[in-house]
Amino acid sequence: QDEGANQSGLYELRGVVTHQGSSADSGHYTAYVKKEGRVDPKTGKRGEEDGNWWWFNDDKVSEVPSTSIDALA
């Protein structure tokens, strides 16, 4: 048995890459990455996630709600 393997088969979506354009060779790619909770400097423990995502679009980085990710489907 593989130590550390995901035994449940369930995964959590943590990132999405999108493309707009007529082919993979031309167009525009952007990426969404799920935010992690902040680390408490005293305890080193990670806090609760707020459900928001980072949207990376060229040199712009924006915080977006999870509904923006739902709309990609």
Q: What brief labels describe this structure?
A:
EC 3.4.19.12; UBP14-like; cysteine-type deubiquitinase activity; mainly beta; ubl conjugation pathway; Peptidase_C19_UCH; 73 residues
Report what the structure shows:
The protein has about 70 residues and is mainly beta. The chain has a domain of about 45 residues. It is built from one helix and four strands. Strands 1-2-3-4 form a four-stranded antiparallel sheet. A hairpin with a 2-residue loop joins β1 and β2. The longest helix is centred in the last third of the chain and has 5 residues. It is extended and about 45 Å long.
Could you give a short description of this structure?
With 73 residues, the protein is mostly beta strands. The chain is built from one helix and four strands, in the order E-E-E-E-H. Keywords: Hydrolase, Protease, Thiol protease, Ubl conjugation pathway.
Give the amount of beta strand, in percent: 35-45%
Task: Write down the overall geometry.
Answer: extended
Tell me how many strands there are.
Answer: 4
Give the helix proportion (percent range): under 10%
Structural class: mainly beta
Largest sheet: 4 strands, antiparallel
Q: What is the gyration radius calculated from CA atoms? A: 16 Å
Query: Ranges with pLDDT <50 over ≥5 residues?
Result: none
Order of helices and strands: EEEEH
Going across the major beta sheet, what is the strand order?
1-2-3-4
Secondary structure topology:
Layout: E1 15-23, E2 26-34, E3 53-57, E4 60-64, H1 66-70
Antiparallel strand pairs: 1-2, 2-3, 3-4
Domain USP: 1-73
Pfam families: UCH
InterPro entries: Papain-like_cys_pep_sf, Peptidase_C19_UCH, UBP14-like, USP, USP_CS
